[in-house]
C-alpha cells in the first residue's frame, strides 16, 4: 500500500454508467479525485504511474456483510487484517456485523471501529445491533448509533426472534431510513442442525437444518415490513422458496432486499460427503441442495437478489480442526468472491459484466444509502482494478485474512482483483 494522491492509471478499460469496458483509456487522479480521462495522457512530474496493461476498472466494490471480529475476537481477525483481505479481494468498502465483544450496540463502539479503520485503504461501515447486547430483549440506541456512523442494524449471528421487537425495529428503520438486516432463522426449527436437512444429511446421519427454518422467518419479516413500512434486508439467502418469497414481496411493492454469498450459488451439501466432513464447508445458513443453488443463480439473473456478499467469517485453525458437529459455522470469503462469481455467473453467461458489477458496486451501497462511486471527471477516486481471465491458485500464501478457513484453498481460480484505489491509497495485489 502506498499513499498516492496523484496517480496516472495507464491502459485501463473502464466499466460503469458511461463505459462498457470496450475502450482502453488513461485515468489521471489528482488529490484523490479523477481529474482527467483520455488517451495517451502524459505523466506530470509529481505523479506515480501504473500501467494496467488492459485491466478493467470499475467503481470500488463493496461487501455489505463481513465479520471483522474486532473488538473481542482478535485471535480470529482484526480490522486491519480483515481490510487487507478485502483489498486483496478488490473491495474498497465493507460493512461489518455487530457480533463482537462488546457488541456494536452503542455509539462508542461504532466510533471505535471507524477510528480503527481510518488510516486503512478500505472504508469500514459498522452495522449496529438491533437489540442491546444482541440479546433480543430491548431495542438498542439506533438513532445515536446512526449519528456515530452506523449504516444499518442487525443482530446477525442470531435472528431477531421476538416479533414485537422486530416490529419496533422496522418502525425505527422507517424513520431513520436505514435497513434492518435479519439473520433469518426460526431457532425452534433449525437446531441442533449442522448441515442442510435433506438426502445427504439422512445418509450421513447428521442433524439437519431444513429450509423452512429460513423461509418462515423471511415470511414473517416480509409481513412486518409491509405492516410497518420499514426496510427489511434478508441476509445470506439460501433456499429456492426463500427467493420466491422475496420475488413475490418485491412484486407487491414491499420494501425488501436481499443478498447471496458465492458459496451458496456455487457449492451444495454434497461437499460435506465428498470432502469427508471438512469443517471448511460448514456454515450457516448451510450449503443447500442443487435445486437451491440453481434458484440463487436464477434470482441473481432476474434481479430478485440484489447484492453479492461474502459473510466473511474467520475462525482460528484450532476452532475448525474438530469433529464436524462441534466446529463453528462460517468461512472466509473476501479473497475469492470475485473468482467464484466469474466462474459461476460471468463465464457461464448468467450475467454480463456490467450486471455482475452492479451486485458488487451499486446495489450494496443503494441498500445502505451510501454514495456510489463513479468513473467521471471530478469524482472521488474509489476504484477497483480487475480482470476476468487470469488463472491463479488460492493457496495459504495468498490469504491476507488472519484465518484460513476456506473451502477454496488449493483450488485454481479464474479472474482476480489486481488492486484498489481509495482514500488516496493505492494497493497493488502481488501474487
General description of the model:
With 431 residues, the chain is α/β, with parallel strands linked by helices. The protein has 2 domains: 2-57 and 377-391 and 413-428, Urease, subunit C, domain 1 (Roll); 60-368, TIM Barrel (Alpha-Beta Barrel). Helix content is 30%, strand content 22%. It has 13 helices and 19 strands. It has helices at residues 79-89, 107-116, 142-148, 163-176, 187-190, 199-204, 212-228, 240-251, 270-274, 290-302, 317-320, 337-346, 353-368; strands at 2-3, 7-16, 19-20, 25-30, 33-38, 48-51, 56-59, 61-66, 91-96, 123-126, 180-182, 195-196, 208-209, 232-234, 256-260, 307-308, 383-394, 411-422, 425-428. Strands 1, 2, 3, 4, 5, 6, 7, 17, 18 and 19 form a 10-stranded mixed beta sheet that branches. It has a 4-stranded parallel beta sheet with strand order 11-14-15-16. Helix 1 links the parallel strand 8 and strand 9. Helix 7 packs parallel to helix 8 (240-251). The longest helix is centred in the middle third of the chain and has 17 residues, at 212-228. The chain is globular and about 65 Å long. It starts with a strand and ends with a strand. The mean pLDDT is 97. Belongs to the metallo-dependent hydrolases superfamily. DHOase family. Class I DHOase subfamily. Zn(2+) 1 binds at residues 65, 67, 156, 311. The active site is at residue 311. InterPro entries: DHOase, DHOase/Allantoinase_Hydrolase, DHOase_cat, Dihydroorotase_CS, Metal-dep_hydrolase_composite, Metal_Hydrolase. Residues 59-239 form the Dihydroorotase catalytic domain.
